[in-house]
Amino acid sequence: MNMKALSLWVMLCLAITKSLATSRHCNFPAIFNFGDSNSDTGGLSAAFGQPGPPHGESYFHHPAGRYCDGRLIVDFLAKKLGVPYLNAYLDAVGSNFSHGANFATAGSTIRPQNTTLHQFGGFSPFSLDVQFNQFNDFQRRSKIFQSKGGVYETLLPKAEYFSQALYTFDIGQNDLAAGYFHNMSIDQVRAYVPDVLAQFKNIIKYIYDHGGRSFWVHNTGPVGCLPYMIELFPHKAHRMDKAGCVASYNEVAQFFNHELKAAVVELRKKLPLAAITYVDVYSLKYSLISQAKKHGFEEPLRACCGHGGKYNYNMHIGCGAKIKVHGKEILIGKACKDPSVWVNWDGVHYTQAANKWVFDQIVNGSFSDPPIPLNMACHKQL
Ligand SMILES: *[C@@H]1O[C@H](CO)[C@@H](O)[C@H](O)[C@H]1NC(C)=O
Ligand SMILES: *[C@@H]1O[C@H](CO)[C@@H](O)[C@H](O)[C@H]1NC(C)=O
Ligand SMILES: *[C@@H]1O[C@H](CO)[C@@H](O)[C@H](O)[C@H]1NC(C)=O
Ligand SMILES: *[C@@H]1O[C@H](CO)[C@@H](O)[C@H](O)[C@H]1NC(C)=O
């Protein structure tokens, strides 16, 4: 081969490689999300009332159904994929589901709970099995109403979107927390993790049977670093780690994540057409909390919005709480001055700034298994 032919050949190879690389970008026309408050964009609020101001103040400038001062990881994810912020399935007024729906509600668990919202800990009745039933109903009726045309056609996903969509999950944290709220020991909570994950696997299988192919699964965060967990439970008997978190709660969360990863490996074998990405948000959240200063944040274990105490968290006077003084309502669950440098919003949830920081780290796949970026998460392997 002479030089000219060789260089032509090299150019041709480069062109092919480039087109292959770009053609591998997935086109996700919709997102269907399942989860808890980490990704609730208005579900619990539609069922039980809106969290009041100052929620939403940093971005929406009014409460927006989110337990946050602004956007959640799922909002940044939607923005990155070029689809509108997801409406909650339960949100009947003004919603547009043409590019997906959000079934997550604050307080949701994978397993149905025996206690109700207003008892210990406030767990949601919309556990993952209920969220799946809602999805099932949504898919079935979308098909019926799509065929009616008119406004329905612009408000509901096209039939083919259900197989092309990205199915996202961030759930499990409350299954662990529920045990502690019921005064269970660390070992008792650890012991039911396999049952929780068995139910999680079932739901992924059901969605696959309904056409879902691309799955994006967040592992659970360091629940032992959340102000409400540190504050609420007598932890004299617990070890605190160097970051000031309850070590034993985090160890159970890591055990959950280890088992979740094994569940994902098993699901990949059982569901041959599924691309399942496991995303390690635990490590990022822990890094953000344990090295907050390095990442440009302050006071990672104190809530930005709350009312007093070491962690600025008071179970009875939450973020947005008001009292009446001489017939006048006064806000006493107030926000800090600059939420953009705080990690924790209200003692339970992360700030918009923290959510954005985590999203910016996960988007390129460096915390994923397999390690491929978000916009390639429809592929089984690179
Ligand atoms: C709820 O109660 C039933 C019956 O006592 C029990 O079998 C089940 O495990 C409980 N569920 C949870 C999540 O604790
Ligand atoms: C719903 O949203 C889609 C995408 O943003 C838009 O094209 C459509 O017109 C909207 N439907 C209505 C009724 O507003
Ligand atoms: C857990 O223990 C505390 C303190 O002993 C008690 O007040 C609470 O009612 C117990 N919660 C449950 C669910 O048993
Ligand atoms: C992914 O993004 C993060 C944050 O921008 C960056 O630090 C990291 O080096 C990137 N990793 C890869 C593999 O590109």
Task: Give structural notes.
The chain has 382 residues and is α/β, with parallel strands linked by helices. It is 39% helix and 11% strand. It is built from twelve helices and ten strands. It has helices spanning 3-23, 43-48, 73-81, 128-146, 151-155, 161-164, 173-181, 186-209, 227-232, 247-270, 281-290, 352-362; strands at 31-35, 100-102, 166-170, 214-218, 275-279, 298-303, 322-325, 328-331, 342-344, 368-369. Helix 7 packs antiparallel against helix 8. It is globular and about 65 Å long. It starts with a helix and ends in a 13-residue tail after the last strand. The model is unreliable at 13-20 (pLDDT under 50). One 2-acetamido-2-deoxy-beta-D-glucopyranose binds at residues 84, 96, 98, 151, 154-155. InterPro entries: GDSL, SGNH_hydro_sf, SGNH_plant_lipase-like. GO terms for molecular function: hydrolase activity, acting on ester bonds. Residues 1-21 form the signal peptide. Keywords: Glycoprotein, Hydrolase, Signal.
CATH superfamily: SGNH hydrolase
Q: CATH topology, what is it called?
A: Rossmann fold
- How many domains comprise the coordinates? 1
The CA-CA distance between the termini, in Å, is 32 Å
Major sheet characteristics:
6 strands, mixed
Any idea what the CATH architecture is? 3-Layer(aba) Sandwich
Radius of gyration, whole Å: 22 Å
Number of strands: 10
Portion in strands:
5-15%
- Average per-residue pLDDT, rounded, comes to 92
Helix fraction, binned, reads: 25-40%
Question: What gross morphology would you assign?
Answer: globular
The level-1 CATH class: Alpha Beta
Secondary-structure-derived class: alpha/beta
Q: What low-confidence regions span 5 or more consecutive residues with pLDDT below 50? A: 13-20
The helix/strand order is: HEHHEHHHEHHEHHEHEEEEHE
Bound molecules: 2-acetamido-2-deoxy-beta-D-glucopyranose
Q: Which strand order do you get reading across the main beta sheet?
A: 2-1-3-4-5-10
Number of helices: 12
Family: Belongs to the 'GDSL' lipolytic enzyme family.
Protein name: Alpha-L-fucosidase
Keywords: Glycoprotein, Hydrolase, Signal
InterPro entries: GDSL, SGNH_hydro_sf, SGNH_plant_lipase-like
